[in-house]
Inverse folding.
């Protein structure tokens, strides 16, 4: 996709909308308002109050990952980014319910969901990468799916980001955040998803 012919803020809005809608139980109620003040762009997410814990995630994992991804994209395009939920007025008791997701079980719905997820991953990587890249989906049996992201060495550094600590261990801040988002979306489809980075030949 030629960045000169697209609006990165519009693309970012579409990606955030897809992520949030994929996590909540009432996606038709999700809206994202965008405010631009000088070099600052604020994405305000509006959704049903009962769905707020689903995008926050356990210990804030989902929302932190979404914000990290958005900040990374913003840096690429010279914008300061902030992502808020209903102006960040969250209920003090906002905790994920015991079961975060209504798991999709209909095979055709799962297929459509996985196709959408593949497109979303392509768009997320496309907002960060500068050179060419490819995303390949490998169904390896049962609920396990591997997405292989092939990129140039320069973009691999961009996609990985600085080292950070995650619950599963050390990982790149940007890459780990994308993994968290994709993992959460995969769970709604009853799939265990793993992202791997490889260099293009």
């Amino acid at each position: 996709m030629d960045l000169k012919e697209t609006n990165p803020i519009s693309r970012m809005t579409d990606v955030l909308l897809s992520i949030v809608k994929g996590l909540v139980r009432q996606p038709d109620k999700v809206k994202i308002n965008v405010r631009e003040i000088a070099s600052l762009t604020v994405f305000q997410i509006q959704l049903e109050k009962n769905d707020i814990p689903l995008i926050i995630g356990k210990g804030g994992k989902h929302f932190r990952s979404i914000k990290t991804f958005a900040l990374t994209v913003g840096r690429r395009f010279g914008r300061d980014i902030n992502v808020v939920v209903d102006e960040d007025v969250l209920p003090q008791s906002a905790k994920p319910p015991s079961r975060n997701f209504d798991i999709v079980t209909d095979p055709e719905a799962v297929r459509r969901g996985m196709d959408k997820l593949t497109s979303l991953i392509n768009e997320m990587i496309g907002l960060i990468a500068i050179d060419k890249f490819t995303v390949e989906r490998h169904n390896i049996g049962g609920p396990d799916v591997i997405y292989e992201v092939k990129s140039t060495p320069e973009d691999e550094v961009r996609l990985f980001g600085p080292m950070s600590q995650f619950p599963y261990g050390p990982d790149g801040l940007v890459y780990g955040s994308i993994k968290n988002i994709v993992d959460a979306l995969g769970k709604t489809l009853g799939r265990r998803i793993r992202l791997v980075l490889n260099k293009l030949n």
In short: The radius of gyration is 16 Å. Residues 1-5, 87-101 have pLDDT under 50 and may be disordered. The first helix runs from residue 8 to 23. The longest strand covers residues 144-151.
